[in-house]
């Protein structure tokens, strides 16, 4: 599929897809006319990158993960370690958001009782 189709399918802008390619987060083949040509494997990989970004992983860490992925199965333990570290970060952020939500709910309840 071409870049516009990938953009529609993943809900990621063409600009962002080109940026991912420029930063070597993804590798995209070209068709006979020189257009980017994506396959189903890239769809899942791009969606995974997006999920990592949504959980707050920095692009430099996504790049590190991408490089390890490209190096093959010999890097599985390193990838596992990177994901486990990021999981701890996500859990910490989740706890922070839960505390903030609790505080917000208490303040809302305070104002409802005053109204």
Automatic annotation (TrEMBL):
Pfam (any one): MerR_1
Stretch forming the signal peptide: none
Keywords for the protein's UniProt record, in alphabetical order: DNA-binding, Repressor, Transcription, Transcription regulation
MF-aspect GO terms: DNA binding; DNA-binding transcription factor activity
CDD domains reported for this sequence: HTH_YyaN
Domain of life the protein comes from: Bacteria
Protein name, entry field: MerR family transcriptional regulator
